[in-house]
Amino acid sequence: MIASTFPIIPCSTEETIAKETGLNVIIDKHGVKKLAEEVIEFMSDNKYTSCTRQLPKFYPSFFDIKAGDWLFLLHTLNFSLWIPNSTKQWTVNNYTGFWALCAAIKRAIDDNKLIWDPNYYMTITPTEMKYIFRGDDEIILPYLEERRIILHRVGKILKKKYGGLFINCIRESEYDADKLMKILFKFESYQDEIMFRGKPIRLYTKAKLLISDLQTYFPISSKSSIKTSTLLKDYRAVQVLLHFGAIRYTENLQLLLRICAVALKERDAQRRSTERTEMELGRSGAEVQSSAVECYYGGVG
C-alpha cells in the first residue's frame, strides 16, 4: 500500500472546484428554492427530522454489533456494479446496482457466512466470492476477482493495524467524522484523489458515503465537523438538480460531457477486447469524475 503524498487542501474541495468551473455550471436560485420546498414538504409528510432516519431494507438493524464492519464491507465493494453496453445486468432477487450488492451481502449474512468479518474475507477464495455474490440468471458480479483482491488488501490492513475489525477504526477516530475520513484514506480503495488543474483534490466520496451511513449507528462527537464532513451527493442527484432547474449546464459543457461519455464507452470496449483493465480499483465514482475533468481540461485521449 502506497501512502499518498498529496496534502489535504484546507478549503472545501467543492468550493475550490466550483470557483474554477463556475462559468459552465449555473446555479439558479429559483430552481434551488423549488427543490428546497419539495424536500421540506416530503420530510414533513414523512415525519423526517434531523434525528430520524429510515433504515434501508438490506441494512443491519440498529443494534447489530456487526453494523460497522458490515457497512465498511458494503461501501468498499460499492463500485462499478453495472455492465456497460449490456442488455442484461447483475441482479440479486431482481434488484440491480447498489441494492443488488446490499441484497447479496444480507443473503450471505443470513446464511451465516462471515462475509462481514475481515478475518474471513482477507483469505476469501474465488469460489466463495462467486457463490456469495451469485446473481440471478447466472450473471456474474462485474470485476469479481478485482473485488476479491481488494478484500484481501483491506482485510490484511485491518488485521495488522486495527485488531481485525473495522469497528476499531471508528473507535480510534473517537467518533469524529473528520478523523475517520483520514483513517479511511489509508485504505487504497478509499483514496478518491485526482489532479484538478494542476492541484491535488481529495474527493473523499466513498469515505463520506460510508460515514453518512455510520451516523445512523454510532454517535459522532460534538467536536466533529459533521456538517461539512458528511456533505455529499449521490451521483444521480445531479439529475434531480437539473430536473428542478437548481443547476444548468452551458451548451459547451453539455457537448463535452457527451464526448466524455462516448470516450468512456470506447475505452471500456477496448478493455474487454484486450482482457485488461485500467480502472483504479474500489474508487467508486472517482473514475467517472476524474475522467470528466480530464476530458474537459486535458482533452479526450
From TrEMBL:
Keyword annotations from UniProtKB, A to Z: Hydrolase
Enzyme class, broadest EC rank: hydrolase
Annotated InterPro entries: Q_salvage
Catalytically driven reaction(s): queuosine 5'-phosphate + H2O = queuine + D-ribose 5-phosphate
Single GO biological process annotation from the record: tRNA modification
GO molecular function, one term: hydrolase activity
Documented EC number(s): 3.2.2.-
Domain of life: Eukaryota
Its biological purpose: Catalyzes the hydrolysis of queuosine 5'-phosphate, releasing the nucleobase queuine (q). Is required for salvage of queuine from exogenous queuosine (Q) that is imported and then converted to queuosine 5'-phosphate intracellularly.
PANTHER family, alphabetized: QUEUOSINE 5'-PHOSPHATE N-GLYCOSYLASE_HYDROLASE, QUEUOSINE 5'-PHOSPHATE N-GLYCOSYLASE_HYDROLASE-RELATED
Family according to the record: Belongs to the QNG1 protein family.
Protein name: Queuosine 5'-phosphate N-glycosylase/hydrolase
Organism: Acromyrmex insinuator
